[in-house]
Design a protein that fits this description.
Rossmann fold; about 240 residues; binds S-adenosylmethionine; alpha/beta
Length: about 240
C-alpha cells in the first residue's frame, strides 16, 4: 500500500464490509474496555460542556454518543469517510434521544469539512492509525480547533511490560484475527488491525508529531497496561 489513495480506498472498503458487526466485535475483542476508554477520553472535555466538538473518524458513533451523554448542551459533529459506518451508527441510535445532539457528516479527516477555529474539542478514537497522511490530519485538526481548544487522540499502543506484552501479542496476532474474521466474515480486516498496530508510532513519536503540528501542553496517558494511549494537545 504505497500511496495515500490506495490506503484510503482499502480502509474505506474494509470498514464498509465490517460495519454491521463493528460494535459487537469492538466490545467483545476489547473485553468491554472500549467503553471505559471512550469515557476517559470524553471526560477530558469537561471544561467545554457547551458548543460544538468534532468527533473525527467517528465510525459507528460510539464516542460521539459518549461525548453527547456527558454534556446535555454539546453538539457533536461526527465526521467519517465511510458512509456505511455512519449509517450503521445512526440506525443503532434510532431510539436514543441523544441522537439530536449528533450530526453525522460524510467527509475526509484529512480535509475536514468545517470552518477554521469552529470547535472547542476534536476527538479521534482509533482513527489516526487509519489515516493515510497523519501529519495532514493533525494539521486539519489544529485548523478547526478554536484557540485554547483540545485535541484528544485515543489509539492502540503496544504494552512493554514483560509477560503482558507476550500475552497481548499472542492475542492480537493469533486469536483476534481468527475470532474477528469468523464473526465479521472478513479476516483481512482484522489482519490489517494487527499489522497496523504493530507498525504504528510509539507514543513519544506521536507526541513529537503533535508538537510539530503546532499543539502545546502535549501529553500521553497509557491506559490498561498501555494497550491504548490517550494523547492530549492544546491549540495555542
Ligand atoms: C476503528 S474505526 C473507529 C470508529 C470510532 N471512532 C470508534 O471509536 O469506534 C476507524 C474509522 O476511521 C475512519 N477513517 C479512516 N480514515 C479516515 C479519513 N481519512 N477520513 C475520515 N474517516 C476515516 C474509518 O472509516 C473508520 O470508520
Amino acid at each position: 500500500m504505497e500511496h495515500a489513495g490506495d490506503k484510503k480506498g482499502f480502509v474505506r472498503r474494509k470498514f464498509a464490509a465490517i460495519s454491521p458487526r463493528y460494535d459487537l466485535l469492538n466490545s467483545m475483542l476489547s473485553f468491554h474496555c472500549d467503553r471505559y476508554w471512550r469515557w476517559v477520553t470524553s471526560r477530558e472535555l469537561r471544561d467545554f460542556p457547551e458548543g460544538t466538538v468534532l468527533d473525527c473518524c467517528a465510525g459507528t458513533l460510539p464516542l460521539s454518543l459518549e461525548l453527547a451523554r456527558q454534556a446535555d448542551d454539546r453538539l457533536v459533529v461526527a465526521v467519517d469517510f465511510c458512509e456505511e459506518m455512519l449509517r450503521q451508527g445512526w440506525h443503532t441510535l434510532a431510539t436514543n434521544y441523544r441522537r439530536r445532539q449528533i450530526k453525522p457528516v460524510c467527509g475526509d479527516g484529512e480535509e475536514i469539512p468545517l470552518r477554521s477555529a469552529s470547535v472547542w474539542g476534536v476527538t479521534v478514537a482509533f482513527g489516526v492509525r487509519n489515516l493515510a497522511r497523519v501529519e495532514q490530519g493533525l494539521a486539519e485538526m489544529l485548523r478547526v480547533l478554536r484557540p485554547g481548544g483540545k485535541l484528544l487522540i485515543l489509539e492502540f499502543s503496544r504494552p512493554h511490560t514483560p509477560v503482558i506484552k507476550d500475552v497481548y501479542n499472542f492475542y492480537l496476532n493469533r486469536i483476534l484475527p481468527r475470532i474477528a474474521g469468523w464473526i465479521s466474515g472478513d479476516p483481512e480486516a482484522y489482519e490489517y488491525l494487527a499489522s497496523s498496530i504493530a507498525g504504528f508510532y510509539e507514543p513519544e513519536e506521536l507526541l513529537a508529531m503533535l508538537r510539530d503540528a503546532g499543539f502545546v501542553q502535549c501529553r500521553a496517558q497509557p491506559l490498561t497496561f498501555g494497550v491504548v494511549t490517550l494523547y492530549v494537545g492544546v491549540k495555542p
